[in-house]
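in:
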């Protein structure tokens, strides 16, 4: 029966090839959304592993405000907290280009820095007039390591900082718009005094106890916002899911429209197809046999189009770097970090694509096939 179905499809190969081509493009679109969203979620999890287990911020009027550093001493006394780190970070607008640069204070432990090219590899600290920059800032200002970066400080004063190093391009996802200063310089640029910081990062002994420790901090300091790593991960998962659903709904609508077209084409058999069915029934084929033949034909088309669509989606996402909708899904900025997601494919995603592609197509083809199967042989041959 399968061999006969393949021969029947070959007789009308132009029509079948057109259907497979259009269907493959539709499948490739929503498969790209599924694969890219999955890869983004995997990249997010990988990045979040390097973040502190807990960080604490102070809010005023629902917005982030400077946090008194004296709170760090109280947090260190909570059971389960290994250490507390004071962090200074914020944003600095670049008026000439419209970019927003990220300002951070360099950690005390210089060895924590990775993927950095230094002018002097032996240097182990930042002076107040020195800076480490991301590759995007070098390109934006047309600078290189050893040049001076001009920054407008609070009060419209201008200061030059010597660029002693730059982060490598492989770290662009995190550092492309980053300016790393000494602690006194970062505080001055952000308008913070020595008694306040942007937030506090907590290191815990047991990661499984992070949520319990966060609850204790929240109860002891109700005016603080306590954020845990799992909470941030859940936020990003929801963000990627919401953005990808827009494209997924659109592609499913395209699939639905295509299935309507398939229904209409399958319901309106041409004279040659009607004559073929009449001959088959005339030589003894039953309705079940005709139905089985049409299901095999639809299955061959659906499986071929789905597999080819999945292949197109894999090339689009992991080889071509998603040129069709990547900026819309991940966001936009003047200093846009270039990154390529790692090839991550889960069997659940493959099964989802197969279910969305094959089952609806077979459903759309089965009822027209049944209508064709009950045609009287004499009427069909005439």
């Amino acid at each position: 029966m399968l061999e006969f179905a393949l021969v029947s499809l070959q007789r009308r190969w132009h029509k079948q090839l057109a259907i497979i081509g259009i269907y493959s493009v539709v499948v490739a679109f929503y498969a790209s959304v599924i694969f890219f969203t999955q890869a983004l979620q995997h990249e997010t999890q990988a990045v979040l592993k390097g973040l502190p287990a807990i960080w604490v911020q102070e809010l005023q009027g629902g917005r982030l405000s400077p946090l008194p550093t004296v709170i760090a001493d109280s947090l260190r006394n909570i059971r389960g907290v290994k250490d507390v780190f004071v962090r200074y970070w914020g944003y600095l607008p670049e008026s000439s280009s419209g970019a927003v640069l990220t300002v951070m204070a360099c950690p005390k432990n210089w060895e924590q820095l990775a993927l950095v090219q230094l002018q002097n590899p032996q240097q182990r600290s930042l002076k107040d007039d020195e800076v480490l920059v991301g590759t995007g800032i070098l390109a934006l200002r047309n600078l290189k390591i050893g040049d001076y970066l001009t920054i407008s400080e609070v009060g419209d004063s201008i200061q030059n900082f010597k660029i002693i190093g730059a982060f490598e391009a492989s770290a662009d996802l995190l550092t492309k718009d980053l300016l790393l200063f000494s602690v006194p310089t970062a505080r001055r640029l952000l308008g913070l005094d020595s008694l306040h910081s942007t937030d506090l990062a907590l290191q815990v002994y047991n990661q499984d106890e992070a949520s319990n420790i966060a609850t204790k901090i929240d109860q002891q300091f109700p005016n603080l916002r306590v954020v845990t790593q799992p909470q941030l991960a859940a936020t990003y998962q929801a963000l990627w899911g919401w953005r990808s659903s827009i494209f997924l709904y659109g592609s499913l609508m395209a699939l639905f429209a295509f299935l309507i077209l398939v229904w209409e084409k399958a319901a309106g058999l041409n004279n040659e197809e009607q004559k073929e069915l009449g001959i088959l029934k005339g030589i003894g084929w039953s309705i079940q046999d005709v139905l089985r033949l049409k299901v095999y034909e639809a299955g061959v088309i659906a499986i071929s189009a789905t597999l080819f669509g999945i292949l197109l989606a894999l090339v689009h996402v992991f080889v071509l770097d998603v040129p069709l909708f990547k900026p819309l899904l991940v966001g936009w900025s003047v200093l846009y970090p270039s990154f390529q997601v790692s090839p991550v494919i889960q069997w659940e995603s493959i099964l989802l694509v197969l279910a969305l592609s094959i089952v609806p197509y077979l459903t759309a083809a089965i009822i027209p096939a049944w209508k064709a199967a009950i045609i009287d042989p004499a009427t069909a041959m005439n």
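note: Residues 2-46+235-381 form one domain.
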